[in-house]
Here is the input.
Amino acid sequence: MKKYYIFVIGILLFVPLLSIAQIESGDTLNAKTPVEKRVKKKKEKNPDGIKTGWNFGILPSVAFDADLGFQYGVLSNIYYYGDGSAHPDYMHSLYFEAAYTTKRYGLFRFSYDSRYLIPKHRFSFDATYIPDAMCDFLGFNGYQAVYNNKWHNSKKYSTEEGYKTRAFYKYRRDLLRIAADIQGPIQGNWKWAAGIGFLGYWTGNVNIDMINKNKKTKNKLPTDVDELYEKYVKWNIINSNEADGGFHPYLRGGMVYDDRNKQANASKGLYFDAFFTYTAGFGKSSEFNNLKFNTVFQHYVPVYKDYITFAYRVGTQLLLSGKSPFYMDNYLNVLYYQRVLYEVVGGGNSVRGLLRNRVLANGFGYATAEFRFKVWKFKIKKQNFYLAFNPFCDMGIVLQPKSLNEKTLLANIAHNDPDFDIDNDLKNYLNFDKKRIYLPHFGAGIGMKIAMNENFILSVDWAVPFNKQDNAGMANIYVKMGYLF
Here is the structure.
């Protein structure tokens, strides 16, 4: 399903500037302290400038989707730099975003991050609610799930050619997340990390009646076609205890190494973390208690000053014990939420160019390599801006597939879906060649970044998949905040 983003070039370039309401040291609201006077003298020698006090950035959130409707909203990032001694890093960051569509897709988020609230510790808090009326569902284990573009592409195919419904690879998924994480010093650049949080999922079939509301007859989705999600539930691939979602508190702990020269877009340094997350389940979800292990290695290599950087990362998430419900199989555990949601493998937060949620598996690996070019630095009204481009290549792979027994599946289909033609149609849904499961998924493209004061970064990425099974050769555009890592 193609998305049309209504972002005017002028908004992309100048709204961050025109919408700024900034209070800096030296304004009439703040008298200069001796430290701030020293900062001012340093600024005269530093063409890049040192930010002090408060800094506000705000952008409209506007989009249109044929099924989800018109999106409207706003996002804002507020930074406090204090006396400027921490610049280009901030002392406190507050992020707000509220966006909704006319057909119930939304994003409501508040996050806070600070290295100064608790001395020598980093503390972050996140509260997010994401109602999603048409969330992507492509099946289990990557290439084991066969993707058929014609089944949901009404722009290119007709019912005579095999088109089923635009909702075929969709399901309803609402997510509530509340998380608090803290990092403290061990020695040098080594830190311990701990966190606590809660994930609440509500899942089910797409509400076709709501999607069809106020649509012309020719544009309405059929109500008598099973979506892939419905097939998985009917065939008991998704069991009844996970089909409607669940509630999952979690605890995590581990360690971090971080010697990056700055956080938002490091030009040199290493970042490494390794941690365990124990997730519990209650009621009908009690069978989904599990322990997962995550690790990621990120390296930023300076090529030319801070104008050209080569950045790469390699990471994995593995299920060590217990069972994971399908709706959490691509949820990436992280120690700090730089973006609203991390889902691997597939989509704008992992392997760009692939359909979102292309891979659902118990364990997976992922990697990214990209060059980051700052092509223009400039100032407008005391604000420091830069324009950058980043060609990239992303990869994801299944490491621990979900169990799928062919004999049991055939028996479930015969019993629960007797009208389904197993002999002729099952091959269009599943491929039981186990070697295919472990084939890597690749995507590549180029991004553009517009940054204000190093930390407020508007990102536009364009990417394509290498394999048509991942997106039928279609290109995707992602408009987000910040670099991928």
